[in-house]
Design a protein that fits this description.
The complex is a heterotrimer. By secondary structure, chain A is an all-alpha fold. Chain A contains 15 helices and no strands. The chains are: A mainly alpha, B alpha+beta, C mainly alpha.
């Protein structure tokens, strides 16, 4: 009898509301939140994207609308050169026009966007290369080797990266002036390395620390020296991490405004970020679509890179590392 | 064929504050399988790493086949090693993992290929050669790690807890396989484990380590039947040995507090000369305690817990402050809370000094033949596993 | 090659000598590995910081590189503390602190929300295709954009014009003056900068939080469901405690990294109206590279550096604790 009455102590009923909050509202709510979030996040990208294809008149009329033709449809064949921006649909300056990619084309040819892109790419690749190569060695040393004054040296090495760039800007500007490296790619690469290198050291040290200890030991038993174990075993398996760090340094250089601005007063030797800010002075309101086109182009490449990087980032950071912005 | 010799090996960490290995002498014969066993932190892995060359000893000498290798880096020692987590190179295929050691030593392509395929054949991983380590199961990784180690015909074969990441069933399979492999290779092997059962079932000789020292090096039967210290007796054997803190009256009686018993004169003589004072510890293996009718054993007590193990059962009693274990055949019809008498197979009782060292084993003093009984014990152990 | 022959076989020639030197002096390797980094950092950080940063703050910088910069002692510091720069100095400190106090918490809340949302599954109904990875990537659009481009775009969207869509939207709820819109009126300009800054920056915390949320064992949520916890309780008692250390670290990092940044205020409002959004970094930038008073700018920079050193040391301490 005693065992039987035990069940009477429980009531097997739903507690609280009749409907399960989660099952009913969550699937809907999460999409609502997703839409709200994404419309905020994608707003500037959309805004610059669509408005780079409109004439000023259309921007003023409907900034959020998609570009449209204000005239009667033309024969299909005539649309292609317009879309490519070779022939403006109506003379520039008149209102209500669909400009196709002509603003992009203007950017490309006249601004001179191509030169900025080249300069930015050269400087970013150079910076990322220099910072990554140096960081691979020192991060490995900090993570896996023993030597005197390790901790102070580590703090000194990563301090540079917590230091606001504006504080480094003046000393580096004067240094580059003394070395006659203003307006050169080399000067800019060296200056960008000042803040990308400590960042790469920090990230890679975390990665190396998480590797199992036995890998090098196993390699040494297999016949490597300690340095041989690093080159033959650790480096090959670190390729994905090194690639991520390289890309992040690349983007850090791509994004930097301040250093590029002070070191590259010559328009052909500066990078995209200062060039974009120049757009505001060069064109402004009357030719808003040019600004939009330049801005959109400067966002496009890094956004694609980040979308590619994002899974690696999340994995790489789960050990508590971080990314500098 | 190479033998290895450790002479006064000493290794400290933290500027000498932590003594991991404290003056170890050990000789490993050609082709011998020796197991280093002990609780974690006893220095067994450090000893192995010194043999491998991954640690440089602070003192002492290591010789392989008469060559002094103490100062040589691992790559010059011709050892091969299997790590607990296998340490397979993630960016290389199984084949590349296995050929790595040969490549580093400058072997030519054909030799490498021949050796790798030979080792893969032995380890039965021939069809895995193109895979990457992360595509393998734990057992397969283990086989690759072993294969990688045997590819090179090592002078000494070192294994650092290679089975502890495997599940129980796979572990017992691999145990046998490693033993067979070692016989086949006929190479001096040092195997580190914290699992006494693994040690007992695998080693030609077992070195029981405690706090940086080797307590005893002997074949498994000797370790089990003639432990030379409290620690060895306690560490080896499952369920563990029962200890009774006792006093010896100097003539012929030992008193455990809960019960007393008389010892023959040969044992008494040994005890008198071996003990500092009157205190001693009596060790009785659970198999040497059997049930007796009430009043007919050395003591009557109540069964607290009964664990059926198949053909045997483990009984737990509370005697004095200590919990006592006994292993009896499961045929005996008993249950928890039953009152029973306990009798002891006195010949197998051990006497220890309270500070550790063994004084004497009953039968050794009475000088009876050891052999017959040993076989009986071994059988019983096999039954327990 | 039998085993016994291999023992003690070493490389011949130079290689063997190099090997034995490196084995003998193990710590040499570490320093060798460190050499490129130390040379680079000494050349482009340590040396210029002292030579051109500290010493320049005691000089009056002249644009002509050939002319010597006259030594002026502490005059540059005096300028900021007691001279004509005092008002701007004090005001921009206030702006900087307020900016930090708004940006970092907003960053935190938005990033945490985004991370939690992106930890949900987003299966296309009917098709069973998981689209989460795509949305996760899109969430980083802001973080991926150059700060200058972000600030410029938000600045344009916040103008009081037909195309100023953010202004158009917000003016329905708030009384924002039509002349100048958000970017040229107090206190709206400040919020305008904060919105742009959070949009640009929250991606950093979002990535870290997403990694943190993913590392929470799902068994914890399951057991708490068995125990009858609702979603809010689960957030409060499982998610939040699990992320606590991550949150503390990230807030600290963010505080340090936001403090000297100037691109967003520069591109959004140019520091205006008047000096209303002129953070310290922007003051240094303007004085240094607008007025070319590099001595004064260096002096301000030095004071700035000294004041954030405690923050940096705090960060370094947490970073090296497990070291």
């Amino acid at each position: 009898m005693a065992t039987k009455s035990g069940a009477d102590d429980f009531t097997f009923e739903r507690s609280g509301s009749k409907y399960n909050w989660e099952d009913h509202y969550k699937p809907v709510l999460k999409y609502v939140f997703l839409i709200v979030f994404l419309s905020w996040i994608l707003l500037p990208v959309y805004y610059t994207g669509v408005n780079s294809m409109k004439g000023p008149g259309q921007i003023f009329k409907t900034a959020m609308g998609i570009p449209y033709l204000t005239f009667d449809p033309l024969p299909f064949g005539a649309l292609i050169p317009i879309l490519l921006g070779e022939v403006p649909l109506v003379p520039a300056g008149s209102s209500g026009s669909f400009t196709g990619l002509s603003a992009w084309r203007t950017m490309w040819e006249a601004f001179p966007f191509v030169e900025y892109m080249v300069a930015t790419t050269v400087v970013s690749v150079g910076t990322a290369g220099l910072a990554t190569v140096a960081a691979v060695f020192s991060a490995y040393a900090f993570a896996r080797l023993d030597f005197p004054a390790k901790t102070p040296l580590f703090i000194l090495s990563v301090m540079g990266f917590t230091f606001p760039i504006v504080l480094l800007a003046i000393p580096i500007f004067v240094l580059m002036q003394q070395l006659s490296l203003l307006n050169t790619y080399l000067g800019m690469i060296l200056a960008f390395t000042a803040f990308t290198l400590p960042y790469n050291i920090w990230l890679l040290r975390g990665f190396f620390e998480d590797l199992p200890d036995n890998l090098e030991e196993s390699a040494r038993v297999d016949g490597c020296t300690q340095i041989g174990a690093f080159f033959r075993v650790i480096l090959p398996l670190s390729r994905p991490a090194i690639a991520s760090v390289f890309l992040l340094a690349f983007l850090l250089a791509w994004h930097n405004y301040l250093m590029a601005f002070i070191l590259g007063s010559d328009p052909l030797h500066t990078t995209l970020a200062p060039a974009i800010l120049q757009l505001r002075g060069t064109f402004f309101v009357k030719n808003l679509h040019y600004i939009m086109a330049g801005t959109f182009l400067s966002m496009f490449v890094p956004i694609l890179m980040y979308m590619y990087l994002q899974t690696h980032l999340v994995e790489g950071l789960s050990s508590g590392g971080g990314v500098k912005g | 064929m190479v033998d290895a010799n450790l002479d006064g090996l000493r290794k400290t960490f933290n500027n000498g504050n932590v003594v991991a290995v404290d003056s170890i002498d050990l000789h490993i014969e050609e082709g011998e399988f020796i197991v280093l066993v002990g609780p974690s932190g006893c220095g067994k892995s450090t000893t192995l790493r010194c043999i491998a060359g991954l640690e440089t000893p602070n003192d002492g000498k290591i010789e392989f086949g008469g060559h002094d290798v103490t100062e040589l880096p691992p790559k010059d020692r011709a050892v091969s090693m299997v790590f607990q987590n296998y340490a397979l190179y993630p960016s290389m295929t199984v084949y590349e993992n296995m050929e790595f050691g040969l490549k580093m030593r400058g072997a030519d392509r054909e030799t490498i290929d021949e050796r790798v395929r030979w080792a893969a054949g032995i380890m039965e991983i021939g069809d895995l050669l193109d895979r990457y380590p992360n595509q393998l199961s734990g057992g397969q990784q283990q086989r690759v790690a072993l294969g990688r180690a045997i590819v090179r015909e090592p002078a000494i074969f070192l294994l650092d807890e290679p089975l502890s990441n495997l599940d129980a069933k796979l572990r017992s399979v691999m145990r046998t396989e490693i033993q067979e492999l070692q016989r086949k290779l006929d190479v001096a092997t040092v195997f580190v484990t914290h699992d006494q059962e693994e040690a007992m079932s695998m080693g030609d000789r077992i070195a029981v380590m405690n706090a940086g020292r080797i307590e005893q090096v002997d074949p498994p039967e000797v370790i089990y039947h003639e432990p030379n210290s409290l620690f060895v007796a306690d560490f080896i054997g499952s369920p563990e040995i029962n200890f009774f803190e006792s006093t010896f009256d100097g003539s012929d009686t030992v008193d455990t507090g809960a019960f007393g018993f008389d010892v023959p004169s040969e044992v008494a003589t040994e005890l008198s000369s071996g003990l500092d004072g009157r205190d001693l510890v009596v060790g009785i293996r659970p198999e040497d305690i059997s049930l007796a009718p009430l009043g007919e054993g050395v003591i009557d007590t109540e069964i607290q817990v009964l664990e059926p193990m198949g053909d045997t059962q483990i009984l737990y009693f509370d005697i004095g402050d200590s919990r006592i274990r006994a292993v009896v055949p499961s045929a005996q019809p008993i249950g928890e809370n039953d009152k029973v008498g306990l009798s002891v197979n006195w010949e197998n009782v051990h006497f220890f000094r309270p500070d550790g060292p063994s004084v004497v084993k009953w039968r050794k003093a009475t000088d009876e033949g050891v052999n017959t009984d040993q076989e009986l014990r071994t059988d019983q152990r096999a039954g327990n596993q | 090659m039998s085993a016994i022959d291999q023992i003690g076989r070493r490389r011949e020639g130079i290689g063997g000598i190099v090997d034995s030197v490196l084995e003998e002096y193990g710590s040499v390797q570490g320093l060798l590995f460190l050499l490129p980094t130390l040379v680079l950092l000494t050349g482009i950080v340590f040396y210029p910081m002292i030579q051109n940063g500290l010493l320049l703050s005691l000089r009056d910088y002249t644009l002509n590189p050939a002319a010597p910069d006259p030594f002026v002692g502490l005059a540059n510091y005096e300028y900021w503390f007691f001279g004509a720069g005092q008002a701007l100095f004090l005001f921009s400190i206030k702006v900087t602190i307020l900016y930090e106090l708004l940006v970092v918490p907003f960053d935190l809340v938005v990033a945490l929300g985004a991370a939690l949302l992106m930890n949900e599954r987003f299966q296309l109904p009917g098709l069973g295709i998981e689209t989460r990875a795509f949305w996760r990537g899109l969430m980083l659009a802001g973080y991926a954009s150059p700060a200058i481009a972000a600030g410029l775009t938000w600045g344009i969207m916040q103008q009081a014009a037909e195309y100023g869509i953010v202004y158009q939207f917000l003016t329905q709820f708030f009384d924002i003056p039509a002349s100048g819109g958000i970017v040229s009126n107090k206190p709206w300009a400040f919020w305008g900068v904060v919105i742009a800054k959070v949009w640009r920056d929250f991606g950093f915390m979002y990535i870290v939080f997403l990694a943190g949320v993913q590392s929470i064992p799902s068994a914890l949520y399951e057991i708490s469901k068995v125990d009858g916890a609702n979603p809010i309780q689960r957030f409060r008692y499982i998610t939040l405690p699990h992320l606590r250390t991550v949150i503390v670290t990230v807030v600290m990092i963010r505080t340090v990294f936001t403090v000297g940044k100037l691109a967003i205020p520069l591109a959004t409002t140019q520091g205006g109206p008047v000096n209303y959004t002129r953070v310290l970094g922007l003051v240094i930038y303007d004085v240094g590279f607008g007025e070319w008073a590099l001595g004064r700018a260096a002096a301000l920079g030095m004071m700035f550096a000294v004041s954030i050193i405690p923050l940096i040391l705090l960060w370094v301490k947490t970073e090296t604790e497990d070291y």
